[in-house]
């Protein structure tokens, strides 16, 4: 079942995550993965969650993530408290990808959707990988949810599309 505007965000969504710390800020530094209970953490927040098929891939690294990084302030001005990107990559890769993009702190999270479990649960996975999509969650309610239908496209899941719907 895919998510759509008006739905409640599922109550059992848990991703894997390595929190950023200054002491482990180097791209080669490994942290310890922990569970990130998105349902609980985001219950009282406005969140933009977007998904990419893979970290360090051309479309994701050149066309998708940079748009969100460049628009952090505009998203915040619309009340967004957290921006999160997920992929089916392991948490070590996602952590390194965040560091490669010079993202620090907890306003922009690089989360792992192991085995594309969440993406599969909403019908937006492809061959064990997360699809390319964006979801806006406002205090537990989905207000925007769109998946890309064209390979390599960043039209409905990019920062500009999300900003237009906030």
TrEMBL record:
<feature type="active site" description="Cysteine sulfenic acid (-SOH) intermediate">
    <location>
        <position position="60"/>
    </location>
</feature>
<keyword id="KW-0676">Redox-active center</keyword>
<dbReference type="InterPro" id="IPR013766">
    <property type="entry name" value="Thioredoxin_domain"/>
</dbReference>
<dbReference type="GO" id="GO:0034599">
    <property type="term" value="P:cellular response to oxidative stress"/>
</dbReference>
<comment type="similarity">
    <text>Belongs to the peroxiredoxin family. Prx5 subfamily.</text>
</comment>
<dbReference type="InterPro" id="IPR013740">
    <property type="entry name" value="Redoxin"/>
</dbReference>
<dbReference type="GO" id="GO:0045454">
    <property type="term" value="P:cell redox homeostasis"/>
</dbReference>
<dbReference type="InterPro" id="IPR037944">
    <property type="entry name" value="PRX5-like"/>
</dbReference>
<keyword id="KW-0575">Peroxidase</keyword>
<dbReference type="GO" id="GO:0042744">
    <property type="term" value="P:hydrogen peroxide catabolic process"/>
</dbReference>
<keyword id="KW-0049">Antioxidant</keyword>
<comment type="function">
    <text>Thiol-specific peroxidase that catalyzes the reduction of hydrogen peroxide and organic hydroperoxides to water and alcohols, respectively. Plays a role in cell protection against oxidative stress by detoxifying peroxides.</text>
</comment>
<protein>
    <recommendedName>
        <fullName>Thioredoxin peroxidase</fullName>
    </recommendedName>
</protein>
<dbReference type="GO" id="GO:0005777">
    <property type="term" value="C:peroxisome"/>
</dbReference>
<dbReference type="Pfam" id="PF08534">
    <property type="entry name" value="Redoxin"/>
</dbReference>
<dbReference type="InterPro" id="IPR036249">
    <property type="entry name" value="Thioredoxin-like_sf"/>
</dbReference>
<keyword id="KW-0560">Oxidoreductase</keyword>
<feature type="domain" description="Thioredoxin">
    <location>
        <begin position="3"/>
        <end position="166"/>
    </location>
</feature>
<dbReference type="GO" id="GO:0008379">
    <property type="term" value="F:thioredoxin peroxidase activity"/>
</dbReference>
<dbReference type="GO" id="GO:0005739">
    <property type="term" value="C:mitochondrion"/>
</dbReference>
């Amino acid at each position: 079942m895919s998510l759509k505007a008006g739905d409640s965000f599922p109550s059992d969504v848990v991703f894997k995550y390595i929190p950023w710390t200054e002491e482990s800020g180097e791209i080669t530094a490994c942290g310890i993965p922990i569970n990130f209970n998105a349902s609980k953490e985001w219950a009282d927040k406005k969140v933009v969650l977007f998904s990419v098929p893979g970290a360090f891939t051309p479309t994701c690294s050149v066309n998708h993530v940079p748009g969100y990084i460049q628009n952090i302030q505009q998203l915040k001005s619309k009340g967004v408290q957290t921006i999160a990107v997920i992929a089916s990559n392991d948490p070590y890769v996602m952590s390194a990808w965040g560091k490669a993009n010079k993202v620090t702190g907890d306003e922009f999270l690089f989360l792992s959707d192991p085995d594309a479990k969440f993406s599969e649960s909403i019908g937006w996975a492809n061959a064990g990988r997360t699809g390319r999509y964006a979801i806006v969650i406002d205090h537990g309610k989905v207000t925007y949810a769109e998946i890309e239908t064209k390979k390599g496209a960043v039209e409905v899941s990019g920062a500009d599309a999300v900003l237009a719907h906030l």
